[in-house]
Amino acid sequence: MPLQPLLPAATIAANMAELKPALRRQEALVEANRCLYCFDAPCIMACPAGIDVPAFIKKIAHGNPVAAAKTILTANILGASCARVCPTSVLCEGACVLEDRDEQPIQIGRLQRYATDYVAERGIKVFSLPAQTSGKRVAVIGAGPAGLACAAELAQLGHTVVVFEKQARPGGLNTYGIAYYKMKPDVSLAEAELVGSLGVELRCGLTIGKDLTVAQLEKAFDAIFVGVGLGAATRLRIPGENLPEVVDALDFIDQIHTHPLDRVPIGRRVVVIGAGNTAIDAVTQSLRLGAEQATVVYRRSEGDMSAYNFEYQLAKHDGARFLFNVMPVEVRGSAGHVIGLRLVRTRAGADGRPEPIPETEYIEPCDLVLKAVGQEKQVALLRQLFPALQIDSRGVIAHDPLTGQTNVPHIFTGGDCANGGREVVNAVGEGKKAAHGIHTFLTKETATPLVQPSRLGAKQGSSGSGLLSPIRAHELVEALKK
Fold it and tell me: Are 163 and 200 in contact (CB under 8 A)?
């Protein structure tokens, strides 16, 4: 039968309350004073945006949240959203030296939120625009984290920037694709306004290739940054996938962000296909919207999940079921609506890939199927818009990782369309690096870093812009243990 809302608004609002509420002033002071203010701070190494974590925490401890916010936002214009959505337990907090002393790591994310919320709630400005402009114009395609970070950095370097976004609102997945209990869209939209306050022009509801051509952009601008993200959800390619209750997980999350919570239709028995962080967001929000049962099905083992462990534990705490080593082979329907998912048990084949076990099929009853099996690369779109652009074997834009420059000299890139899909803070770091690459391309000068270089920058091989080269969190943690 057709889906419908299941819970009253007040109940859903309580269910969707923030997981980590804001710190009160005294709580922030106590937490900040736990920090050891390490000179060779591993938390800085762990931040792809290069935030000087000990510096901003010390400013909070000294009762100066405005200065703390300036340190954060100068390094990461999206510091407010990253404070809420970054996997801090495997990035900065995961690298905190207090863990080696059997103590709780500093709550860096919540302290970062305390400082950024302080200035946002009071309308305190922490940026000043350059006295002179370069006369150069840069077009940014995509108002997601990478595009906004690139635009903000370029504006502070004195360039004129126009951001083009096909959606009605800026922010990308920060606005449309984050679990509601982690961050509300208003935070992302406020950050876009902050970028706009730097003189960046945001033009939403415009599709490049439809409303404007790339040739028009190349005629009007001196350089282009491509930050278009990833495409539609990967198809299952099984019978029944086109039934109305088979929905992309990101589209489901989008509905939560764009509709009143008590009007979001939900199934009583929900099955989520996939085991990444988006799958966890989908299954957990299904339960909080009123689903009586929500189940994650994954064709590999529990140890193969790509979701972070803290996300996995949250979903289990909320009552989510997990079925491992099962593969969907058909969505079953009746009278045009989903009634179940036919699964087959799997085992690792000779090549390590899951293979079905004969005669193990069974039906998992459900009335809503959410697909969280990844997003398609934007290969077709990129080749249509930029025929000369080199696409690598992964289906992403080939580029210099230190400058974001592509094989077409005036085109730069960053974010998911260049890295294949990583964290918000990775996109911010890449956007900033590209901004410095663009600045050098336009002026033939190396920009003075707008962010204090990490005290480990020289050791880690920074790009010369004060930004650390991206490093995978688990690699960092393992390196620190040695």
Answer: yes
| In the predicted structure, residue 20 carries a pLDDT above the cut 90 | no
Report CA-CA distances (Å) from 289 to 9, 16, 17, 314, 339: 9, 8, 12, 16, 20
b (16+ CB within 10 A) / e for 272-283: bbbbbbbbbbbb
Choosing among 2.60.120.560, 3.50.50.60, 3.30.43.10, 3.60.40.10, the CATH entry for 246-371 is 3.50.50.60
Give pLDDT tens digits for 79-92. Answer: 999 999 999 999 99
Other CB atoms within 10 A of residue 246 CB: 20
CATH number attached to the domain at 19-126+452-482: 1.10.1060.10
**CATH number of 137-231+376-450, picked from 3.50.50.60, 3.30.420.40, 2.50.20.10, 3.40.50.300:** 3.50.50.60
Label residue 159 left, alpha or beta by phi (over 0 means left) and psi (-120 to 50 means alpha).
beta
Residue 156 host element (H or E): helix 145-156
Lowest mean pLDDT among 128-132, 235-239, 250-254, 361-365: 128-132
| Residue 215 CA: distances (Å) to CA of 210, 218, 284 | 12, 5, 44
DSSP string, 401-463: TTT-B-SSTTEEE-SHHHHSS--HHHHHHHHHHHHHHHHHHHHSSPPPPSSPPPTTHHHHT--
**3 state SS of 88:** helix
- Res 448: pLDDT: 57
Provide the whole-model pTM: 0.90
